[in-house]
Design a protein that fits this description.
The protein is α+β, with helices and mostly antiparallel strands. It has 2 domains: 161 residues, Jelly Rolls, CATH 2.60.120.10; 111 residues, Arc Repressor Mutant, subunit A (Orthogonal Bundle), CATH 1.10.10. The protein is 43% helix and 18% strand. The chain is built from 10 helices and 11 strands. A hairpin with a 2-residue loop joins strand 5 and strand 6. Helix 2 packs antiparallel against helix 3 and helix 5 crosses helix 6. The C terminus is likely disordered.
Length: 291
Amino acid sequence: MKPVFEQTPQRQWESFHCEVVRGAGYGATWHFHPEFQITLALKSTGYRLVGDNITPLTSGDLVLVGSNLPHVWQQDAGGGRGAVHAIVARFLGTWLGREFLEIPEAAGVKRLLQRAGRGLHVTGRTRDVVADRMQRLPEAKGLNRVAALLDILETLAQSRELRPIASAGFMPSLASDDQGRMARVTAHIHAHLTGEIDRTTVARAAHLSAGAFSRFFKLRTGKTLPEYVNELRVGRACRLLAEEDRKVTDVALDCGFRNLPNFNRRFREITRQTPREYRRQLQRSTGVPSA
């Protein structure tokens, strides 16, 4: 089976994506994406498939997956809603700029990412150290978040406890049609983010029926179209709240929300704060007095 292209649900306020996965499974199929991926399976049983390697999956498993390397984590059936607890971080090789990996201090990380083309299983003391830092990564904020991921990558780069996963001769067969289709879909969504985004219209951009598009989109992003759009809109709202002194109502309208109660509800679902609480926190952290 050919792997499918998966769109990483990165938000506007982050340079890389980090999420905590909890539930009965991982919600993914055999897929690939341009981002590198670090996955810490804190609680899970089943198997992981990386390239042409299949390995039993146990709690504590830690893996670095290279760019565009097909993979899937598969939880055993019957484990219940709390069967999986994992932390996943995804980042592009250019997440700190195209020149970053060319500076002398980044030479070790550059070599690490090159080695990750086959996937790397992290073992020994390195696994313990990085697992501890991965558990703190989802709560890190601002430049501390960037520094935390750099610290993880530097630790991996210096370690001798990383083992290649896929065979040396593995060459993935990637579904380029999916990549082009997702590119058209995301371009349409971003172009119409402040207005109406209709499923039928987006499906037309993907050359799919509305029903087929819903299945396609959920498989590639792990989210429904409304969930994905709301995350992008709230991301834009966070940027506007941080950069501009505007009324919350005006920010809501400028981000595609038609009424303030819906904006407040979606904002709180995603950030766990109201827009006003988010702005006040920013003002406290930057020393800017509240209006």
